[in-house]
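Hi Y.,

Following your request, here is the sequence exactly as I used it, all 94 residues.
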Amino acid sequence: MVVQMNVFLLAACWVLLLAPPRTLAGRAASKAPKLPEGFCPKTTGVITRTTGECMCNYQHKDGCRGSGCKYEYGLSWYHYSCKDCECIPEPEEA
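Below is the corresponding structure, written out as tokens. Let me know if you'd prefer a different format.
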């Protein structure tokens, strides 16, 4: 049992520490994807350079409407593959 645990720990250390960095790094694509017509209007959002996402100007949990909207780390955004997503204009203050 102890020998099996030591082998497992050695294997885990190799994977985490000695594996080439490219296997552990997450990189954005080098080319931008082909985006659909009318994707991410400039009045409500900004297109990311390589990942095909629309970052909504209105950074609020209600800043995006649709089935694939995300709200993470204070950012509202959606991927170009979401057909029913759109950014919502920031409401005017009363």
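The CA atoms of residues 11 and 42 lie 49 Å apart.

Thanks again,
Q.
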